[in-house]
Amino acid sequence: MVVAMRLSTVILPIHRWSEGRKVWQRAEELGFHAAYTYDHLAWRSFRDGPWFGAVPTLTAAATATDRLRLGTLVTSPNFRHPVTLAKDLITLDDVSDGRITLGIGAGGDGFDATTLRRSDEEPWTPRERADHFEEFVPLLDQLLREPSVTYEGTFYSANEARNIPGCVQRPRLPFAVAATGPRGMRLAARYGQAWVTTGDPKLYGTGTPEQSAEAIRGQVTRVSAACESIGRDAAELDKILLTGFTPGDPLQSLDAFVDFAGAHFALGITEIVIHDPIPDSDFAADEKVFERIATEALDQLRR
What is the pLDDT averaged over residues 212-240? Predict the structure, then answer.
């Protein structure tokens, strides 16, 4: 049984605020559950164009909207430290009156992994990223829950780090943990209010929609098993699919999206996130189709 069917969007931080304000406000007007943004220093083909910081963008979006949930998809330890991130998140949660969700993942090997490194310094390996993430998440959880934290770990430390008054959302703002491997899924089960997937990256470009759906089914099964292994009801963990990285084009028409969404909600996904269209990019889409999906798709699925 599908626990929930929510539709959200992700707005890349590429707009000067004179235009960006309108994009975030439109997301609220269209009725999306949430609007997220990427938290990167630069990203792929957008590297040589405008790209603004996630935290200031979300702060501005919080003042320009009233009901829309806001968040990152995703923040990573590649260039974030738990102590400073916690301070930013508490501020964001306050400005938004408790509408912030932190999407968080181990990070990748793109520009975020190299921008802060010396030229003779190798980026973290996948294992090293996972090691950092495994320490990052519980420390961030503690920092957002407690008024004062002292901690000394392998990678991070905090010396009487004060976080008063804490989050508006109690005991802290929700985490949406992106993970496809067992270590990340265990973190999602223990610390997450949601789990995030983009599907199986090995299938993007070469796989079929059917193979992708089967891979996501397997991921849902594994993250549910991770919950059950610690005595947690897997239904308590929301399951978010960020689209744009699976075979096929679900945004080509309203009917195509309804078929795609229905199939994935049936797998146990509870929230589907679609990119706000960006012309001449991997996220190009017909604006009218996008708006019809936002306003009509869930009604069709609920009939």
Answer: 98
pLDDT in tens, 142-190: 999 999 999 999 999 999 999 999 999 999 999 999 999 999 999 999 9
Say if CB 176 and CB 73 are below 8 A apart: yes
Beta bridge partners of 100: 70
Q: What's residue 3's pLDDT?
A: 55
Q: What's the pTM value of the predicted model, to 2 decimals?
A: 0.96
For residue 161, list its beta bridge partners.
149
Task: Map the chain to HEC letters.
Answer: CCCCCEEEEECCCCCCHHHHHHHHHHHHHCCCCEEEECCCCCCHHHCCCCCCCHHHHHHHHHHHCCCCEEEEEEECCCCCCHHHHHHHHHHHHHHCCCCEEEEECCCCCCHHHHCCCCCCCCCCCHHHHHHHHHHHHHHHHHHHHCCEEEEECCCCEEEEEECCCCCCCCCCCCEEEECCCHHHHHHHHHHCCEEEECCCHHHCCCCCHHHHHHHHHHHHHHHHHHHHHCCCCHHHCEEEEECCCCCCCCCCCHHHHHHHHHHHHHCCCCEEEEECCCCCCCCCCCHHHHHHHHHHHHHHHHC
Distance CA 284, CA 296 (A): 20
> Is 3 or 68 the better-scoring residue by pLDDT?
68
Q: Are the CB atoms for 45 and 19 separated by under 8 Å?
A: no
Per-residue b or e along 267-296, where b marks 16 or more CB atoms closer than 10 Å to that residue's CB = bbbbbbbbbbbeeeeebebeeebbeebbee
Q: Distance between CA atoms of 171 and 82, rounded to whole angstroms?
A: 17
Residue-wise pLDDT tens digits, 244-263: 999 999 999 999 999 999 99
